[in-house]
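Design a sequence for this backbone.
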């Protein structure tokens, strides 16, 4: 889990959250769990999600 704040450009002040997962299955299970979690749904009312992306890094 990584957290940061943009400090330059037109999006300065926006927050970033990065999460790593061991597999696509783990990502799917997380999204399924969050979809029905009351605390997460309540938190969504307090912030705006601009972008969600899944990136696979192959080394």
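Sequence:
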């Amino acid at each position: 889990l990584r957290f940061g704040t943009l400090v330059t450009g037109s999006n300065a002040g926006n927050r970033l959250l990065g999460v790593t997962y061991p597999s696509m299955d783990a990502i799917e299970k997380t999204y399924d769990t969050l979809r029905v979690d009351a605390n997460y749904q309540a938190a969504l009312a307090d912030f705006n999600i601009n972008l969600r992306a899944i990136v696979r890094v192959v080394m």
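Helices lie at 24-35, 38-44.
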